[in-house]
Amino acid sequence: MAIGLSLDQGMQPDHVSPENIPPQLLVEVFSELRPEIFAQRLTALNSLLRMALLGGMEMSFPVLAQLMLDITDGITSSDRQLVLLGHPSDPHLPHLQIPRHWPQEPPPQEENLLHQWAMAAGQPMLAVPGVDPRLDRFLSRLGMSNGVVIPLFSGHGPAGSLQLYRLHPPAFEPADAHLLWIVSLLAETQIAHSQALHHLLRFAFNDYLTGLKTRRFFEQALEQEIKRALRNRTSCALLLLDLDDFKQINDSYGHHIGDETLRQLARILTRDMREIDTVARFGGDEFAVILPDTDHEGARFVATRLREAVRQTPIQAAGTPGMERPLHLDLSLGIALAPENATAPAALLRSADMALYQAKRNGKHRYYFSQERRLIS
Q1: Residuewise pLDDT in 10s, the chain (377 residues)
Q2: DSSP string of 180-214, one letter each residue
Q3: What single DSSP character describes residue 30?
Q4: How far apart are CA 237 and CA 277, in angstroms?
């Protein structure tokens, strides 16, 4: 359950610039640290050496984030830790949040004031009360006494933030910010690598036209979800969806309108889906949806919602000759459940495909359950 953070006026993180960040919170840092810092913090030096050695390994960002949090334990004490990846001005960057020791889910990235400030300032900050009312409200909502935030970088600029919090005084010291800054510098190359990997996987597993998952990704996800359903003794639903009479759209208005229709349909299909659901373009105008932890009634609910959402959402293509009015689409669906209908991916696909065929043959704009004799119209 997420912490209830309602953003007050004056605490909105939008349009953050270095000019409206309290300068007394900023810590001036350098890539070389004064010897006296290490003389007092030998454990921190050992942790930084560990980061330098392990940081050369190829790793995903979640693994790297956990490594950074492990390293911070040897640098300074804290009660709550958080690593955020993502920049509000770059939608192509992956947005990830890795918390540690939070009894509840920390606030989302767009509501994290210190993340916004760190990304704008590009340097560490000591978050102490009594300096700025926006920060006071943010710390109060978190239930924290103070914090320290360090920006994270990739090759092209700010990419995230490392945040540590304490429930009670004392406050973090500038030496803490200096040492954590070195952690950020050591992690920069690995963050750039993890982002490059993310973009590569995005290209490989996302359909170029609709932005949905590809059939290749779908097949891997289906196998994993069936195994999970069998292991946990739950139910997983598979929906195959096909636009009714889509060929007429291409024939009447051209393939560019057909492509735009598929793009708008993809937005409809993903509008109210859960994060654990998978929506993929299966091929042409056929789509597939995997619904983990979903039984017969849950699948019926989603199928009904999707069918009605598609019918009630007009497809806009302004300026197209002969298409003065928006298009209204109909959708047919076939539904199969694992393990009820099958426990192998290929068999479950065949079951859903046969159900889709029955829906098409019996009048379209309807859904049909595999091995169910009664048609749902």
Answers
A1: 233 233 333 344 445 666 689 999 999 887 666 666 666 676 777 777 777 766 666 667 778 788 889 989 989 999 999 999 876 665 555 678 889 999 988 988 889 999 999 989 999 999 999 999 999 999 999 999 999 999 988 766 788 899 999 999 999 999 999 999 988 888 877 776 655 555 555 556 778 788 888 888 889 889 989 998 998 899 999 999 998 888 888 887 788 888 888 888 899 898 888 888 999 998 888 999 999 999 999 999 999 999 999 888 887 765 555 556 777 888 999 999 999 999 999 999 999 999 999 998 888 888 989 875 444 44
A2: HHHHHHHHHHHHHHHHHHHHHHHHHHB-TTT-SBP
A3: -
A4: 10
Beta strands 367-369 and 331-338: pairing type?
parallel
Q: Which two tokens stand for residue 306?
A: 């999707």
Count of CB atoms situated within 10 Å of the CB of 153: 18
Sequence ranges of the domains in the chain: 18-202, 215-369
Question: Rounded to whole angstroms, how far apart are CA atoms 207 and 280?
Answer: 8
CB atoms within 10 A of CB 322: 8
> What element of type H or E holds 332?
strand 331-338
Pick the CATH number of 18-202 from 3.30.450.40, 3.30.700.20, 3.30.43.10, 3.40.50.300: 3.30.450.40
- Fold category of 215-369 in CATH: Alpha-Beta Plaits (3.30.70)
